[in-house]
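Hey,
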Amino acid sequence: MAGGEGRERALVTGASRGVGAAVVESLVARGMEVWAMARPSAQLDALASRLGCHAVAVDMADAGALDAALADLEVDVVVNNAGIITAVAPFAAIEPADIDRMLDVNLRATMVVTRALLPGMIARRRGHLFLVTSLLGPYAGPNVATYAATKAALRAFGQCLRIELAGTDVRLTEVAPGRVRTDIYREAFGGDDARLQSTLFERYRALEPAHVAQALIAALDMPPAADISILELSPTDQAVGGLVFAPREE
């Protein structure tokens, strides 16, 4: 999977739609050679055809397939963006399979991708590693315990890596957005797009995928001696971290 000489190269996971697709578009616009990784889909094929990026069709939950897809790839920028929400419900009510899938895609896949590509970045003494997390990681919310736990784990993962990477010239930035207008909740809503839109977006001004991509590019454009380690990006109308008290029944 060697790339062309002279151009900066990037890998973006979860690239077929939403934030991932917006990041791919932004990186291609910068003149970078981009590998767009996601599950096989018509969306991924269309993205590659439209932007001229490399489509890497792989199941992000399959660690072996990920390793094989990343063999011999050298990149300057890694954007770990892949993430799913398979259920929105109290933790006691969700299925074990939903827990496994979110752990595999949101957490394990990021670690597999990072383990495959980070040693080369360190050896070349250049690179920028991005972890796209969520404000649901550091700030609690109901009915998303497993998803939030994966994103909180990624924050800890990134903070540990940041210490290990000091002095290597490899930068690490966590981008933690609030509510973004994507279809990440679509599976959790049983494919009911109308209910998803009316519940999450009709009455609320959310971020757009391009806003997240713009924030990521701003971190990438910092001088080599400067690293934005954590970037929390929320809609202007969204506030996080407040306490919620449930009324007691008499």
